[in-house]
Amino acid sequence: MKNLFPEKSDIAIIGGGSAGLALAFHLAEQGNDRLSVTIVESRSDYQNDRTWCFWDFNELHEKLRPIIRKSWQNWSFSKGERTIVHHSAAHPYCAVSAGDYYEKVLACLRVLDNFTIVKNCQATSITTHKGGYLIATSQGEMWSRYIIDTRPPIHDYHLKKSSPSAPSYSEVFSGAILYQIFFGVEVELDYDFFDDSTVQLMANLTEAHNGLAFRYVLPYSANRALVEYTTFTPHFFAAQQLKSDCLSALEQLLGKSKFEIVYEEGAVLPMGFGGVKSSRSNLLYAGIVGGSVRDSTGFAFIRTQRWAARCAADLAKGRLSKSMACDTRVDEFMDKTFLRVLRKHPQLAPKLFMSMAQNLSAETFARFMMEKSTWPDYLRVIMAMPKKVFFQQIISTSG
Ligand SMILES: Cc1cc2nc3c(=O)[nH]c(=O)nc-3n(C[C@H](O)[C@H](O)[C@H](O)COP(=O)(O)OP(=O)(O)OC[C@H]3O[C@@H](n4cnc5c(N)ncnc54)[C@H](O)[C@@H]3O)c2cc1C
Question: Which superfamily does CATH assign the domain made up of 8-49+97-167+274-316 to?
Answer without folding.
Answer: FAD/NAD(P)-binding domain (3.50.50.60)
